[in-house]
Amino acid sequence: MNFRHPRAAVMGIWGLVLTFAAVQLIAWTALGGTSRASVVVVQFVIAWFVILILTLVSTRRIGGLARTIRQHERARTATLDQVEQLEMRNAILQIISRSVDVPLAFQALAQRIVRLVPCDRVGLALLSDDGQEFQTYTARVNQVERRSRPRPDLVFKADRTAIGNVVRSREPLIINDTRPYAADFLDVNVLHTAGLESALLLPLLAKGRAVGTLNVVSRQLNAFDQEHVDALLPIAEIFAVAYVAQQLQVAVGKYQTVEAMSELTLSIAAEINSALQTIIGHCDLLERGYPDPNLQRDLATVVRQAQRITSLLERMRAAAQERLKEMADAVNQGGIPSSPEAYGKAETR
Questions:
Q1: How far apart are the C-alpha atoms of 95 and 57, rounded to whole Å?
Q2: Nearest one of 200, 178, 54 to 117, comparing CA atoms
Q3: What is the mean pLDDT of each run of 10 residues along the chain (349 residues)?
């Protein structure tokens, strides 16, 4: 009997029932001369046989339906998780598209992160430009956030910290128990002192460079596993790209400011130098036309001071050009074109 198809199973059950009725009819007619007790025993045995067959069929069918329901439930749960992750990424992209302020986006998205990975706190550690310090931000997901704008909670050195190790290794770190790590890492010691027993730290990687960590912590032991790592890795990647974009935007702003100041400095220096050259020329004419020693001495003093100012202006022009060159190099290293022509060249590569 095919137990995989409901229609075949139903037909099989009705076939057994009809067979049982036919056997009963034959027994009553063919065994008319036999004792009634023998007929009852035969019917009893056949009835139990049919009941057992029906029980087996029903059990197999119910088991198959249960397995199908479990498979559908697992598929539904996996689909819901994927939808939650897509909604999280979409929310991050929407917030970042309005502003590349990463700490502000982190504060707005902390409640969504806790839906993916149940935890007591969500943290963000951002590496400074010199790579020596971390500014850490914390969102207490089980409390109402009273701050309108995030501010750094603590500043840690890169040395002797778990977040520093994660940035250097570029690999996620699962801490099942903060107690053994508290003696070696300052940041884990702070967590352990606050009553937090386990943590998960993921590096923020963009263009092969680690710029910080995304952290979730819990008051329970062994709260995190590889499944949580897989759920948070895409979120960490988006935060990393956003933070790099924020740094590059700041660099472009500095470049534009330095460029404007340099152009203004060069323009003013050119005007002053032109006036000084006129003064020096007139002093030469006065020196030739009037041989008075006192006048010549005064004219020589004026010429020397004018030449000194010219030298200072030359140094100002050189410093402005050097600073502009440094900012241009920083922007080019970040991959941001400094002009439409440079953008066109970057697109054709």
A1: 57
A2: 200
A3: 53 66 65 58 68 72 78 80 71 64 79 84 87 86 61 85 92 93 91 92 87 92 91 85 77 74 80 84 81 81 85 82 74 51 42
Task: Identify the sign of the CA torsion 292, 295, 297, 300.
Answer: negative
Q: DSSP letter string over 239-304?
A: HHHHHHHHHHHHHHHHHHHHHHHHHHHHHHHHHHHHHHHHHHHHHHHHHHH---HHHHHHHHHHHH
Helix orientation angle between 6-30 and 36-98, rounded to the nearest 10 degrees: 170
As a whole number of angstroms, the distance between CA 302 and CA 48 comes to 129
Strands (E), 116-269: 121-127, 133-140, 154-157, 173-175, 198-206, 209-218
For 173, other C-beta atoms within 10 Å of its C-beta total 19
| Contacts (Cβ under 8 Å, ≥6 apart) of 345 | 337
